[in-house]
Amino acid sequence: MIESGLAACLKWCARKGDLVVDTLIKWGIPAVGGGYLALNPDKVSALIEAVEAWLPFF
């Protein structure tokens, strides 16, 4: 009886841990990427120029 209760608690904690990791990935990756782009606007303009140069080929 105690073992099954402990197993249920561990499963619940594992699901919550998985939710935390998923949420961090969902919100962390865009925030870091956006921060990098905000700190390096010259790289953004270089990327735009490179894309514009390739557009005629498509």
Structural write-up:
This protein is an all-alpha fold and 58 residues long. It has a domain at 23-58. It is built from two helices and no strands. The chain is elongated, with a radius of gyration of 22 Å. The mean pLDDT is 82.
What would a concise description of this structure say?
Helices cover 90% and strands 0% of the residues. The chain is an all-alpha fold and 58 residues long. It has a domain of 36 residues.
Identify the overall geometry. elongated
- Determine the structural class based on helices, strands and strand pairing: mainly alpha
Average predicted confidence as pLDDT: 82
Can you write the helix and strand succession as a string?
Answer: HH
Number of helical segments with 4 or more residues: 2
Number of strands: 0
Tell me the strand percentage band: under 5%
Low-confidence stretches: none
Level of helix content?
over 70%
